[in-house]
């Protein structure tokens, strides 16, 4: 199955690379292929797809006095189990640090630890003259995209002047600007006022981070990109009004793109409000505290995200994988939702969760491949090597069984380093059977056959998706 169609085929792999895609049972140059290869994987009755590419992950991200609980080792192994064979993680430059040092620190964390191939985007947390100059060197390092935050004042936040200058660097270099589009200064005032009224439960995280704050920031980011003539990619879109802003810009022919995440397709603010447990009471809702937040189903946000995935107003699905445990991490915010580290872990379940969209008729089989693999490769300068099954491409391949079954839960299909699952109880029609990373079988059934350090750094080119 590719982004453009499906057909019965044999895939011939030589070493790390795909050599040929053949009609079933073909003779290649007079040789009986099946008889002359070292190993045959029988994929009959199953889908053979290019390995998933999760273009938005945060292994080991420092946040709110703690750090995301998956290391590159545990997080990429979980990804492999779920049919994801490449990630693009966010290297972090914090304010006062040199961009080069932030990137070097990320290389240090990842090198020799990954189960699958990995690339980096660069978070620029302090836009100043030094970092603007350093950003110009990033494409040569294989880092062709950077992320700015309109939220989190005092941490990662950039103001409009800083954003404009960074976007000018993107215009000059061909880099892609990724934006966390929420009006952070206004959100922080709303959050303070809620806390002053005693409204400290996790649910109020989503009230403070109102959709208006996402729509406004998305619009502002689009206009700043327009005036600088730079392309824009908005991360973790969750509000239907933010999608409307993207759609309006795209209708004008502007280079504006967006991703959403499984949590914004399936989960809701109402679910979060209703979540209570004996152990945690209303603090149970902390399991789903992430930014942008879960949105109200009554307002139709989830429906709008599926719709935008069909109309290509949103082009990709990434996870924003940013896991924290309840014990010692999420519970930092027991008395104040602002202190709950933001994030949900889903890297292991993205391919399965999106396949449910095929089962329920929300998207086609081809669109599933496009949203999870082919477009991420094109968007972030990996296409040809990744995101497609064709001669010369890396042999990153998933054999997916549409008749298989996957039960999700912390004691079931769960290899992420988390003490809970945001997807507890989800039953998936489908199963990742076999995963190959550059020709090596790293997952066979539910068994992990890879090794730490199998994954290599991906030097990415410029985006292949721009108009
Ligand atoms: N959102 C999250 O949920 N976690 C990390 C950073 C972010 O923007
Ligand atoms: Zn973000
Ligand atoms: Zn993120």
Automatic annotation (TrEMBL):
Domain Amidohydrolase-related: residue ranges: 47-441
CDD domains in the cross-refs: D-HYD
Assigned keywords, A-Z: Hydrolase, Metal-binding
- Superkingdom in the source lineage: Bacteria
What cofactors are annotated for this protein?
Zn(2+)
The protein's matches in Gene3D superfamilies, at most eight in alphabetical order, are given as: Metal-dependent hydrolases (3.20.20.140), Urease, subunit C, domain 1 (2.30.40.10)
Cited PANTHER family: COLLAPSIN RESPONSE MEDIATOR PROTEIN, HYDRANTOINASE/DIHYDROPYRIMIDINASE FAMILY MEMBER
The record's family statement is:
Belongs to the metallo-dependent hydrolases superfamily. Hydantoinase/dihydropyrimidinase family.
Q: Kindly provide the name given to this protein in its UniProt entry.
A: Dihydropyrimidinase
């Amino acid at each position: 199955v590719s982004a453009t169609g499906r057909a019965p085929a044999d895939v011939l792999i030589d070493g790390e690379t795909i050599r040929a895609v053949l009609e079933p049972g073909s003779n290649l140059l007079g040789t009986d292929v099946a008889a002359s290869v070292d190993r045959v994987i029988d994929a009959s009755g199953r889908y053979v797809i290019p390995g998933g590419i999760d273009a938005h992950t945060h292994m080991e991200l420092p946040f709110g006095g703690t750090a995301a609980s998956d290391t590159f080792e545990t997080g990429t192994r979980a990804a492999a189990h779920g049919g994801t064979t490449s990630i693009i993680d966010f290297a972090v430059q914090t304010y006062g640090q040199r961009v080069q040092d932030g990137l070097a620190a990320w290389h240090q964390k990842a090198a020799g630890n990954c189960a699958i191939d990995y690339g980096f985007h660069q978070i620029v947390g302090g836009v100043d003259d030094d970092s603007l100059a350093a950003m110009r060197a990033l494409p040569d390092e294989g880092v062709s995209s950077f992320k700015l935050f309109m939220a989190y004042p005092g941490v990662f936040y950039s103001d409009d002047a800083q954003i404009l200058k960074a976007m000018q660097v993107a215009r000059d270099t061909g880099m892609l600007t990724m934006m966390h589009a929420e009006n952070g200064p206004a959100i922080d005032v709303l959050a303070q006022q809620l806390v002053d009224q005693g409204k400290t439960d996790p649910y109020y995280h989503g009230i403070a981070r109102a959709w208006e704050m996402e729509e406004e920031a998305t619009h502002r980011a689009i206009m700043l990109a327009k005036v600088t003539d730079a392309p824009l990619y908005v991360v973790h879109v969750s509000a239907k009004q933010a999608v409307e802003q993207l759609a309006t810009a795209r209708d004008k022919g502007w280079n504006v793109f967006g991703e959403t995440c499984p949590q914004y397709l399936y989960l809701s603010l109402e679910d979060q409000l209703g979540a209570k447990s004996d152990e945690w009471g209303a603090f149970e809702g902390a399991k789903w505290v992430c930014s942008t937040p879960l949105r109200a189903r009554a307002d139709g946000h989830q429906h709008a995200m599926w719709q935008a995935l069909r109309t290509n107003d949103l082009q990709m699905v990434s996870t924003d994988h940013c896991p924290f445990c309840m014990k010692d991490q999420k519970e930092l915010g027991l008395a104040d939702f602002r202190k709950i580290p933001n994030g949900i872990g889903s890297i292991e379940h993205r391919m399965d969760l999106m396949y449910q969209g095929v089962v329920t008729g929300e998207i086609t089989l081809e669109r599933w491949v496009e949203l999870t693999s082919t477009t991420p490769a094109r968007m972030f300068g990996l296409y040809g090597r990744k995101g497609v099954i064709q001669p010369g491409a890396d042999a990153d391949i998933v054999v997916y069984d549409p008749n298989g079954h996957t039960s999700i839960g912390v004691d079931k299909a769960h290899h992420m380093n988390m003490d809970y699952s945001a997807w507890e109880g989800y039953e998936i029609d489908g199963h990742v059977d076999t995963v190959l990373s550059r020709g090596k079988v790293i997952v066979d059934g539910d068994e992990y056959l890879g090794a730490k350090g199998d994954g290599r750094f991906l030097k990415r080119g410029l985006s292949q998706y721009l108009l």
